[in-house]
Amino acid sequence: MALLVEKSTSGREYKVKDMSQADFGRLEIELAEVEMPGLMASRTEFGPSQPFRGAKITGSLHMNIQTAVLIETLTALGAEVRWCSSNVFSTQDHAAAAIARDSAGVKAEEEFAKNGTIPDPTSTNNVDFQLVLTIIKASLMTDPLRYTKMKERLVGVSAITGVNRLYQMQANGTLIFPVININNDTFTKKEIDNLYGCRHSLPYGLMTATNFMIAGKVVLVAGYGDVGKGCAASMKQAGARVIVTEDDPTLALQATMEGFQVFPLEDVVSNVDIFVTTTGKKDIIMVDHMLKMKNNAIVCNIGHLDNEIDMHGLKTFPGVKRITIKPQTDRWVFPDTNSGIIVLAEGRLMNLGCATGHPSFVMSCSFTNQVIAQLELWNERSSGKYEKKVYVLPKHLDEKVAALHLGKLGAKLTKLTKDQADYISVPVEGPYKPAHYRY
Ligand code: NAD
Ligand code: 9W1
User: Fold this and answer.
1) Distance from the CA of 321 to the center of ligand 2, in angstroms?
2) DSSP class of 21
3) Which ligand is nearest to the CA of 229?
4) Separation of 352 CA from ligand 2 center, angstroms?
5) What is the phi/psi pair of residue 97, to 5°?
6) Residue 131: pLDDT above 80?
7) Whose CA is nearest to atom 29 of ligand 2?
8) Ligand index nearest the alpha carbon of residue 223
9) Over residues 312-341, mean pLDDT
């Protein structure tokens, strides 16, 4: 495969699919900017002092419109940025083109995204690029420490996925840089992304896939954590009768107090019109359940990867027929009954497969955490504050990210007097922790 790396007028290298989409990308970036107030407020607050002057920031994340606004926030604060798409399917070519043209080195080539390896130099017919690849390969053979040295210059990493692996590296002493982890211990990630992101994109995905009526139907939401709460809330609002499944009695109680019924899947499987999994666990809806479902029941997952729905059991069920209505919407028909179910996004996250993921406002909350974590790591690079460990974002920065999003929504905070602030009527520590602290 030919891999042609080009250079923009300012000398940045890029590889994108279609440079002619840059103007379209710019227009959608401008729409997203207004919806990403935390990122824009960061530009206003930090831009003038150029805190990232001299910093080289490199990222790997879905190269889409929201990420483009993140990249341009980092450059607005003085950083030199290079980006690599993390996934071929999530790359938006117009976003990549606008970034390559205007802001940052971007490599959205499929080869690296697919395999995570440096391509074989002979795989390209671009002589310059062959040379670069050959040099990298050769230096890896003769000087394997080269990249270790590079890593030692690293100031730090802000991470949102792969966090378990980073904790393992910390435990066995192989972590060679500080990490700030923006995960489910961060309120403005967990509560906004998981709850409100999914409350928004579950109905969007369902309507895009089939546009079946939701009002009056029976929807089962498996799991009543934050994702489940968002899903149950939007289905209720759309007029569905919602059943929740839970194994945690506190959350089961909470679901009932919100007016939802709580039953095990087995008890209700033949009465449900739409199944949504949100548990983060595996093997939630198995092929034996599917056999008992109503004709054209919708089965989808908005929880963890593709582990919640038994796609293997379905695919290998003797005599089952798959009818692809359109990409991401399949009707699976069982042989004896001729009754079928509709599986969305092949059992993977339906809000990404059948909808366009979280809205910009939601991503603004997550990404503002990234900016603040990067600033913290860079500002403290010589103070010794951050050792080669994994840190969570301190609460005051979480609060700062939330505060940066209030203005756009017309909200104004109450200020406590010093007296009020010092007055403590309830103990702050207790055995109870909200669900998201139990990870
Ligand atoms: P959470 O831990 O708050 O909630 C999961 C809930 O499922 C818990 O309350 C748990 O008791 C319950 N549960 C576990 N096993 C169950 C089972 N077999 N039956 C019924 N209930 C069960 O987690 P969360 O924040 O709600 O996230 C859930 C999953 O969604 C995670 O894997 C997360 O990574 C993913 N997620 C997806 C998106 C998206 O856009 N699709 C966004 C954020 C998070
Ligand atoms: N993230 N910009 C796929 C996204 C994969 C993805 C994932 C989002 C966004 C949940 C973040 C097919 C963007 C991202 C577009 C896309 C996520 C996993 C976003 C929702 C979370 C495992 N998790 N997210 N927008 N892929 O919507 O960055 O198109």
Assistant:
1) 30
2) G
3) 1
4) 6
5) -65, -45
6) no
7) 90
8) 1
9) 96
Entry pTM: 0.87
CA angle 127, 129, 135 (to 5 degrees): 105
- C-beta of 363 in contact with ligand 2 (< 6 A): yes
Residue 243 beta carbon below 6 angstroms from any ligand 1 atom: no
91 lines ligand 2 (CB under 6 A): no
The 10s digit of each residue's pLDDT in 57-109 is: 988 888 999 999 999 999 999 998 888 777 777 889 999 888 888 765 544 33
Q: How far apart are CA 434 and CA 368, in angstroms?
A: 23
Average pLDDT of the segment spanning 166-187? 86
Instruction: Give the closest residue to 378 by CA, choosing from 386, 389, 367, 368.
Output: 386
Per the model's pLDDT, the better-predicted residue between 124 and 206 turns out to be 206
- For 324, phi then psi, to 5°, come to -85, 115
- Report the pLDDT averaged over residues 354-360: 94
Query: Count of CB atoms within 10 A of residue 191's CB?
Result: 20
Instruction: Tell me which of 196 and 190 has the higher pLDDT.
Output: 196
Half-sphere exposure of 49 (CA within 13 A, CB side): 6
- Write down the number of H helices and E strands in the chain: 19, 16
Mean pLDDT of 380-405: 92
Closest C-alpha to ligand 2, atom 22: 305
Q: Which atom of ligand 1 is nearest to the CA of 222?
A: 20
Structure-model confidence comparison of residues 19 and 314, the more confident one: 314
Torsional class of 246: left (φ above 0), alpha (ψ -120 to 50), beta (otherwise):
beta
CA angle 435, 436, 439 (to 5 degrees): 100
